[in-house]
């Protein structure tokens, strides 16, 4: 096992992409699962708090330590098996997402939930139940995890398989992890948000599989060491479009109609003419986000107030039909139809993904230069209230005079707001606007965290959304697994 103690060497493990800065005594880097188990057993026996580290691309400070040591999963980085017939891969937790994606692509497969930051680890993706643009059609990581190997906080390793029906929680209070390890608790009655995405809090539903408690628990219940993940054959043809708008309400009408048509097509026969519009992703960029890319992409039409990035899979023999259906459709909503960017080849799709990725990267870079703690929002609401919610938020931002950027997975009524305060006064105003707009989303039945999680930075919103009684019950579940509260201390719970 590699052990790092020198401050220069451990610096990289003391923050994540949120910019939160922590401290720890040492970083342990086990080179295989047995070393990780021995390491965790020893830490537990000696009452040493430990924080599990993935790639550190998290945005809520989850892997940032504030005591004890860090245990990094970076050396557990092997792709162990691909079964093309049964369509799954088995990977260790520290496999970098872009490596897995390239490997799958070489075999003509793909893993649908696609967090934008591909330097993340697959273990981090599962721990956070990550999602991405394709979640609109394909769901989140939870929908693809077939089995997990987990090292519990005291060092005991358990293997949980989704097809093991004895792990389905039929009665409402017992989780039998394995015959020798039964964790008993009363299933709290949790009211979850009425959104299509949520990663806030533990997943607690009667009839759920034990596996689902660990997915999205942000590493508070155990360390994921290995995962068996469902994969799908890579679609042979994908159309990509970046569409610019000169009118925001019309852009929202476009969004509403696309969502409806696409969702209808997911349930129907994709070959009929009714379903020529069937987007697998619907991503939004506001005017300020577009401006960030303007210098590099002068072909962005002047006068654009926002843009949508769309992707759709199609059968080869329908290419012409699908492209013209989209262009006709777009023409109803924007005068910039002729300036729509179109991607058919892989290289062009990659350019579109880069265009998208550059926006958060540039904003996070600005935030990292700032003296203030980054808080980006990750809210989602129900589709029915999303438009009004967005316009209300926009009014308060415009009145504030703050520098802000909004983009997001609008297919799922999910947005990211980032504000760059230029001084202390603006920082306070930004915090007030964040609090108000998150409270408003929660009041509307939405969530403060559609995909980034709670970590250490969003604990107050966790309390706001679920109330202190449910948070306390979730904490009791955590303590059933980790009675000494050593693992990922401070994540989710104060
Ligand atoms: C530019 C940018 C874009 C992003 N876009 C998206 C997006 O589209 N969708 C999305 O969902 N997220 C997105 N994120 C957030 C982030 O990339 C994801 O949350 C990612 O899954 C975190 O993985 P990681 O390996 O970096 O985890 P880390 O940041 O290292 O850790 C995150 C949390 O998971 C825990 N953890 C990590 N590995 C394990 C493990 N093996 N076992 C148990 N717990 C573990 C950590 O303790 C911590 O609490 C984005 C981030 C950036 C910087």
Can you lay out the helices and strands and say which pair or pack?
Blueprint: E1 2-4, H1 7-10, E2 26-29, H2 33-45, E3 50-53, E4 69-72, E5 79-83, E6 88-92, H3 97-106, E7 109-110, H4 122-127, H5 135-138, E8 145-151, E9 157-161, E10 174-178, E11 181-184, H6 210-214, E12 223-230, E13 232-233, E14 238-245, H7 248-267, E15 279-286, H8 287-294, E16 306-313, H9 319-331, E17 341-343, H10 346-369, E18 379-380, H11 383-400, E19 403-408, E20 414-420, H12 424-443, H13 459-466, H14 468-481
Parallel strand pairs: 2-4, 3-4
Antiparallel strand pairs: 1-2, 5-6, 6-12, 7-13, 8-9, 8-12, 10-11, 14-16, 14-17, 15-16, 15-19, 18-20, 19-20
Helix pairs in contact: 8-10, 11-12, 13-14
Flavin-adenine dinucleotide binds near residues 17, 218 and 452.
Provide an overview of this structure.
The structure is a single chain. This protein is an alpha+beta fold. It folds into three domains: 71 residues, Uridine Diphospho-n-acetylenolpyruvylglucosamine Reductase, domain 2 (2-Layer Sandwich); 155 residues, Uridine Diphospho-n-acetylenolpyruvylglucosamine Reductase, domain 3; 206 residues, 3-Layer(aba) Sandwich (Vanillyl-alcohol Oxidase, Chain A, domain 3), CATH 3.40.462. Helices cover 34% and strands 20% of the residues. The strands form five sheets. A seven-stranded antiparallel β-sheet has the order 17-14-16-15-19-20-18, sandwiched between helices. It has a five-stranded antiparallel β-sheet with strand order 5-6-12-8-9. A four-stranded mixed β-sheet has the order 1-2-4-3. Strand 8 and strand 9 form a beta hairpin. The mean pLDDT is 94. Bound molecules: flavin-adenine dinucleotide (FAD).
